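Thread: Newbie trying to understand structure tokens

Hi all, I'm a second-year student working on a class project, and my supervisor (Dr. K.) asked me to get a predicted structure for one chain before our next meeting. I've only ever worked with sequences, so writing a 3D structure as a token string is new to me. If someone could post the tokens and maybe explain what I'm looking at, I'd be very grateful. Here's the chain:
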Amino acid sequence: MEKIKILIVDDQTLFCKLLRSVISQQKDMTVVGEAQDAQSTINLIHSKPVDIILMDIKLAKENGIKLTKEVLKLKPDIKIIILSAYDDDHFVIEAFKVGAAGYLLKNVEPDEITKAIRLAYNGDSPIQPKIATKLLEEFTRLSGKLQEDQMLIKADIFSSLTKREIEILKLLGIGMSNDQISKKLLISIKTVKTHISRIIDKLDVTDRFQAAMIAIHQGLIKIGK
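---
Reply by user tm_fold:
Sure, no problem. This is what the structure looks like when written as tokens:
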């Protein structure tokens, strides 16, 4: 059985040891390395195969969100799960905007971490209910000029979307970039952009982020529980 290859990026030694211990007990996972800063992270993703990165949002010298963006530019197929002590709205929203696959608080139970790893590896988005709520609040804020009854989304809102558009919307919701979607679906980036434009138009939103929020709101994207 091929194991899920995990890189831990965190400058807290004890927490790294805890993560390594939890992962080592899983038959389908292995830790391929640990990094404490941006440079060692970049070096490792170039020297070793990595499927999942568990990324601390605040490293001693770097911003985990900025590093997430840099890593995904170099290795767009890697799935990055943010592990953070912070549930601040800004961190949550920015993490997903740059392409994080999931966001968990560090106080979660160990089995929630391994569950999140498997979800991300299989293309789903591991998000705690508390974090999902913040995403929904952001959606509401973006829709703030609408009346409350106008913000209620009808269950058949996706009926106008094609199967391909639904597929792409799900990928948007788990933080995939146009390049990642292009490679996953074996279509051109131009085609991806065309589909996204149609999705935005059909859902009557202003950007891909709002479209993803609707997908989360309607349960189109699985979230951790």
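A couple of things are worth pointing out once you decode it. Residues 143-155 have pLDDT under 50 and may be disordered. DSSP finds eleven helices and five strands in the chain. Feel free to ask follow-ups in this thread.
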